[in-house]
């Protein structure tokens, strides 16, 4: 999980800027959403072939 956050850290920081300054609340929100999405991703099952 930490590897994913480190990989996207620059993107998150760049897109968390409001009026040229990093908004910590927005940055934390995006990080939390990314963490939440990782728990939904299943690695132990093959993808559906629908």
TrEMBL record:
Q: Which InterPro entries match?
A: HTH_dom_conjug_TS-like (IPR024760)
Q: Give every Helix-turn-helix conjugative transposon-like domain span.
A: 1-42
Pfam families linked to this entry: HTH_16 (PF12645)
Classify the source by domain of life.
Answer: Bacteria
- Protein name in UniProt: Helix-turn-helix conjugative transposon-like domain-containing protein
Tell me what organism the protein belongs to.
Intestinimonas butyriciproducens
């Amino acid at each position: 999980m930490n590897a994913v956050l480190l990989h996207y850290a620059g993107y998150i920081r760049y897109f968390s800027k409001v009026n040229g300054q990093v908004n910590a609340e927005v940055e934390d929100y995006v990080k939390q959403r990314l963490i939440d999405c990782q728990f939904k991703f299943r690695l132990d099952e093959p993808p559906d072939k629908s």
